[in-house]
Amino acid sequence: MLPTPKKFFLTAASAEGNSELTAFDNALLAGRIGNINLIRVSSILPPGAEYDPELSIPPGSLVPTAYGYIVSENPGELIAAAVGVGFSEDTFGVIMEFAGKCSQKEAEARIEAMLREAFATRGMKLVDMKIAAAEHRVEKIGCALAAVPMWY
Amino acid sequence: MLPTPKKFFLTAASAEGNSELTAFDNALLAGRIGNINLIRVSSILPPGAEYDPELSIPPGSLVPTAYGYIVSENPGELIAAAVGVGFSEDTFGVIMEFAGKCSQKEAEARIEAMLREAFATRGMKLVDMKIAAAEHRVEKIGCALAAVPMWY
Amino acid sequence: MLPTPKKFFLTAASAEGNSELTAFDNALLAGRIGNINLIRVSSILPPGAEYDPELSIPPGSLVPTAYGYIVSENPGELIAAAVGVGFSEDTFGVIMEFAGKCSQKEAEARIEAMLREAFATRGMKLVDMKIAAAEHRVEKIGCALAAVPMWY
Predict the structure, then answer these.
(1) Catalytic member of A14, A72, A97, A108
(2) Of the candidates C88, C99, C89, the residue with the CA atom closest to the CA atom of residue C66
(3) What EC designation does it have (chains A, B, C) (predicted)?
(4) Structural domain that includes position C71
(5) Catalytic site residue B43?
(6) Minimal Cα–Cα distance from A116 to chain B, Å?
(7) Which of A125, C30, C101, C149 has the fewest CB atoms within 10 Å around its CB?
């Protein structure tokens, strides 16, 4: 089997670029996850996974990551992305992602609502939350992203 | 290298949610794959992989999964998702996914046609098929999904 | 942790199919990566990874791959996809993908510009590039794709 991640952190950032993909790449760099290989996952925090905001991951590593992002080519538009981790008492957690044409505050509120719904559906008690979000006013081509990289 | 999966099953389900992502999350839960980390793959059944509908996978595990899904916010709309596995005589199989605004029956028919095409293109004999599908009449925000999780 | 890839190659191809997914499947087959499980990654060439155009990967393997593709159902339309790997002097490289309604030449030019931007942003010297691209005039349902599979 693939090894289950043991550590995680949250990051959110935004950037401009000359193209859609380089705006995304620049936002990843601004979020300090630009030099690794993100593998997108949906989106459970493994039981016992430890929060480690100082995690340093070697370049090129394959990193299971839950993330949301939005790229906009409309100058002046406000975009935002948020991720949240909901923690249970003693087992796995749930990760939610959101990105849209809204403020950081609205993105955060959506994440919080989604986490509450996810725990209610599972009949689990939500004991804590961590949320990271970023907003960005587009100049030319802009990207907002938020991510929960998981590691070992 | 990443270890090649040895087991698989099929699942299909649908659900409502308060948002796009929680509708998806609720459909995953209804399909009994809501508490794992899906890694999306395209989409070959490894040679010798064994069908195990009773597979139980620990929460938070990284699970290579071929899947298709659709989320709709149009009340009254009929949506469906299907997956199919086509089996060869003695080597790998092929997995196909489909999701759209149609009935379960149509989604299944599309999967069957895609599997036949995939085997014809490869010059391989299609000796058996397994298909799983779900349809859903949207109430507020609905999701239909179908998946082939692969495991060890 | 997941093992970091040690080898890579580039491929680009196009094909027709009877559906969106089988057009994609047929393009993968034309590019000689149709019988493996692609895991999409974004998109760094690990330090020391070796170029091996003769790589043969067992069917069903889980293969971290950076790729771009486009499917079109508009007969007569020209579509193209390109990938590029930018190499640094002595550390990791950067992979860029592009797909759109344009010629192969334009797709290649975009990749080159994106690689230059990615290295400039990182303050790294771009010492070499490898690019693979394909274009396709759609007959019924066509797909152009370009990929950098990474392996061990």
Answers:
(1) A97
(2) C99
(3) 4.1.1.19
(4) 7-54+61-151
(5) yes
(6) 10
(7) A125
Neighbors of chain A by Cβ distance (3+ pairs < 8 Å)? B, C
CB A63 within 8 A of CB A151: yes
Does residue B17 form part of some domain? yes
Instruction: Out of C26, C97, C108, C135, pick the active-site residue.
Output: C97
Tell whether A4 is within 8 A of chain C (Cβ). Answer: no
In a domain, residue C1? The reply is: no
Q: Measure A110 CA to nearest chain B CA, in Å.
A: 9
| Complex ipTM value | 0.96
In a domain, A2, yes or no: no
Gap between the Cα atoms of C20 and B41, Å rounded: 16
Give the helix ranges, DSSP H, for C31-134.
104-122
Contact A42 B62 (CB under 8 A): no
For chain A, how many residues are written? 152
Q: Which residues of C touch B122 (CB under 8 A)?
A: 29, 34-35
pLDDT tens by residue, chain B, 152 residues: 999 999 999 999 999 999 999 999 999 999 999 999 999 999 999 999 999 999 999 999 999 999 999 999 999 999 999 999 999 999 999 999 999 999 999 999 999 999 999 999 999 999 999 999 999 999 999 999 999 999 99
Alpha helices (runs of H) in B52-137, residue ranges in sequence order: 104-122
| Contacts with C66 from chain A: Cβ below 8 Å | 37
- B30 in Cβ contact with B23 (< 8 Å): no
What is the domain count for chain B?
A: 1
Q: What is the pLDDT of residues C131-140, one digit of tens each?
A: 999 999 999 9
pLDDT along chain A (152 residues), means of 10: 98 97 97 98 97 96 98 98 97 98 98 98 98 98 98 98
Mutation target for C interface from B6, B7, B38, B41: give the one with most C CBs within 10 A: B41
**Does B142 fall in a domain?**
yes
Q: Is the separation of the CB atoms in B87 and B126 below 8 Å? A: yes
Contacts of B25 in chain A (CB under 8 A): 94, 96, 114, 118, 121
Judged by DSSP in three states, B14 sits in strand
- Pair type for strands C50-51 and C7-8: parallel
State if pTM tops 0.95. Answer: yes
Q: Can you say whether residue A11 is alpha, beta or left, with left for phi > 0 and alpha for psi between -120 and 50 degrees?
A: beta
